[in-house]
Amino acid sequence: MTAAVEFILLAGFLGSGKTSLLVDWLALPEAADTAVIVNEAGEIDVDGAIIAEGGTLPLSMMSNGCVCCSLTNDLVFTVRALLEDRAKAGLPPFRRIILEGSGLVRPGPVLRSLSPLAPLGLRVRVVTACDATRMGALLDEFDEVAAQLAAAGTLVLTKLDLALPGPAEALAASVNPLALRVVEADRAARARAAFGPAPPVDLPEPPAAPAAHPHMSVLRATFSADATWEDKLDWMENLAAFCGDRLLRVKGFVRQPGVAGGMLLIQAVGTLFSPPVAMSGSRPEGLVVILRDLGAAELRSMDPGAPVRISVYRAGDGLACQPGDSEASLTS
Questions:
Q1: What pTM was estimated for this model as a whole?
Q2: How many domains does the chain have?
Q3: C-alpha span between 319 and 203 (Å, rounded)
């Protein structure tokens, strides 16, 4: 059976080193089965021109504005065209398609726009380039940076020749403890870690003493023993409606009563929830919720009577996947 094509959204604020990271990857032999879509917010597609200098890879350029703000049909059409042209040429499917978003991209709307491609079963993930020299300042000023950091499955620290990685890595871990963090000075090794085989789904331990950012909250939601499946669905639906664009990421496990095994992997980027995935083995129930400009008190006030407990996500909470658990897929 042919493996599903992986769709990687490469995010990162203006000047974060996204294009350099992508060019480093495309120089490696492992990138041979990669197609690239470049989305520039300006009329002159500088990044696309830089990448095109690297060789004869399949490259599509979208210069109709930031893809999360423009008509989503353009992205869907571009992805379909890449896949169809590949098949017409009698070549095997791409292993991955990388969309380099503009510096202002918000991952949630982009992933939501891919819903017409659900029958293709794309495996979707977000890689975010993080400028180690100014991550804190950018996070203070731009909501887009918070969205890009929190949505990532992989956070890649860049410009490590200009800054010590410790403070930036600690900040990244406090904002998004769910992500794999790539802290690698060697450019080729950094690119391999960013775009190579996806790591197993994991909910790693958060930092023992997280340097909490004043605009960001990483919370844990656990349901009471008497909560019904309908209670859980209602609470997650209310969560998306109540938080809106302040909801950046949700990930964890929810038990579905009456089903053998019964544990489901729940994931969301922004308010877009992926289809639940049945999990094998035993693991504690709970959701990690990453929010901007909302804290535990506000989240409790959303539905005071709901059978759920809200607390700060701390080391030792023990939400963890097993090796081999599947990553989120865009499926029908």
A1: 0.82
A2: 2
A3: 6
